[in-house]
Amino acid sequence: MSRTLADETYVGTAPASPDQGPRHRWWILAVICIAQLMVVLDATIVNIALPSAQRDLGFSDGDRQWVITAYALAFGSLLLLGGRIADTFGRKITFLIGLVGFAGASALGGAATSFGLLVGARAGQGLFGALLAPAALSLLTTTFTDSRERAKAFSVYGAIAGAGGAIGLLLGGVLTEYLDWRWTLYVNLFFAVIAFIGGMTLLQRTPRDKNVNLDIPGTILVSTSLFCLVYGFSNAESHGWNSAATWGFLLVGVLLLASFTWWQTKAAHPLLPLRILLDRNRGASFIAVLISGAGMFGVFLFLTYYMQQSLGYTPIQTGLAFMPMVAGLMITNTLATTSLIPRIGPKPVVPLGMGIAAAGMAWMTTLDLTSSYASHVMPPLIVVGLGLGLVMAPAMSLATSGVTSTDAGVASAAVNTMQQVGGSIGTALLTTVSAGAATDYLAGKDPRNPAVLAQAALESYSTAYWWAAGFFAVGLVVSGLLYRRGVPRPDASTAPAVHM
Question: Which domain holds residue 147?
């Protein structure tokens, strides 16, 4: 988690000068970036391998979402606590424990012989990732104390964080096609060993901050509420919306979330100080990140299955097919942060991005069994990428803009929590509605007919795209109403924040 630097102990070897920080700071940056790449790419690397894993382990279409959701949910719901643990018990020890735990969970997932073991391992990855990512960010902020060098370091770190998802898609395709889907998990051992050796060698232990306490009740409330929400949406596919197993979990999730909000007003050391959420621009940004996370995760999951199962693409072809979307995202990402937001502010930019992404998702509903990549798949993918680029970077930046330096770290963690939680809930909901659409299509038809099954799959994907378009349409309205007019005024007193 980000923190202000004046009160921090230097991390690393002896400083070259008081203004610059540790002598081996650029090697420390390399270690941190390797660890961060491992955490970020694991949000997407398994997507490409999922069809192969499903065939191997024999789990259902309704269950496959948990391979993605288990990681995102554990990571997102525990991220705030992970930052507090790093502050309390020391960044080096938290960083190293996170690495070892992440590697162990990855090895367990790669060797999984059942669906339950794979999901448990993915949850373990998320848990240890929630320790690792905030510790890595804290180490970065305390290592680079010169403002110019710090800007360079954060730029490199931000590029790794931003490109990690794309690298995961491509690397997942290569490993699945040329080795086996299990190597999308085993590859983390390679990253973890390098980062662990570098961390042990270069980082110095920091003293425990006895002024920081862990909000255990808050952590239990928010983690349990998020699980209940995701589980409730997932049960709708197998039990129906009228089942107590569906609405009961959803109701409990809402009540626990309300309890968490109340507790944050009473706790002496709240996990998420509510003052962070009260500014209009920040509130709009958190909602924008939540919605875009839900829509983006849906694109990755359902398009992966469409390309591999409906169009017959190989895993590596599927990974490469997403690259134009990533390119479009990077173009508008840069345009928004360097030109548009500084000149006209977020009010026209973020809603425009939401509208473009909604249009791209609606366009995807026209895809069928005869669609070609260049003429039919790639154009809407690029449109979605262009829209997401106008949303993600501005929203993530503005979500931490204007917070005090003491809140910068928790604001950064909260942004990433919103993205992961949005992805978890979105994946669960989209999986439910898509499975329902396939079931409705098969009613009265021969489920043994391959042509009927292929068309049922298309119906399920199309329904998911329409719902994702609806997410972005809601985001357009909400961001258009909440964002303030004009260019945000920079606050020199706030600490920079980077998003994981």
Answer: 1-213
Token code pair at residue 148 = 């110019």
| Burial tier of 186 (Cβ tally within 10 Å: 0-12, 13-18, 19+) | middle
* Same domain membership, residue 315 and residue 196: no
Write down how long the chain is. 500
What is the count of structural domains for the chain?
3
- One-letter amino acid of 424: S
Report the DSSP beta bridge partners of residue 17.
Answer: 21
pLDDT at residue 409 in the model:
59
3-state helix, strand, coil in the chain (%, to 5): 75, 0, 20
Q: Tell me the sheet residues that pair with 21.
A: 17
Query: Greater confidence, 197 or 141?
Result: 197
Which of 235, 250, 268 delimits the end of a domain?
268
What does the pLDDT average to over 219-246? 80
- Distance between terminal CA atoms of the chain? 9
pTM: 0.77
Please give the Cα distance from 383 to 359 (Å, whole number): 8
Q: How many CB atoms lie within 10 A of CB 251?
A: 14
Rounded mean pLDDT of 83-97? 80
Check: CB of residue 73 under 8 Å from CB of residue 222: no
Residues 209 and 219 in one domain: no
| CATH number of the domain bearing residue 325 | 1.20.1250.20
pLDDT 10s digits, 306-363: 998 899 898 888 888 888 988 888 888 878 877 888 888 888 899 999 999 999 999 9
229 in the same domain as 206:
no
- Could you give the CA distance from residue 335 to residue 389 in angstroms, rounded to a whole number? 9
Helix axes 65-89, 408-442, angle to 10 degrees: 170
Name the token pair of 294: 């839900």
Which of 20-29, 377-386, 461-470 is least confident?
A: 20-29
- Could you tell me if 219 and 237 lie in one domain? yes
Shared domain for 139 and 235, answered yes or no, is no
Domain end marker among 198, 213, 228: 213
308 with 263, same domain? no
Cα separation, 26 vs 412, in Å, equals 23
Residue 116 identity (one-letter amino acid): G
CA–CA separation, 249 vs 262, rounded Å?
Answer: 20
Query: What's the distance, CA 362 to chain centroid?
Result: 23
Q: How far is residue 70 CA from its own chain's centroid?
A: 12
Say yes or no: 15 and 112 in one domain: yes
Dihedral in degrees, nearest 10, Cα atoms 145, 150, 153, 159: 140
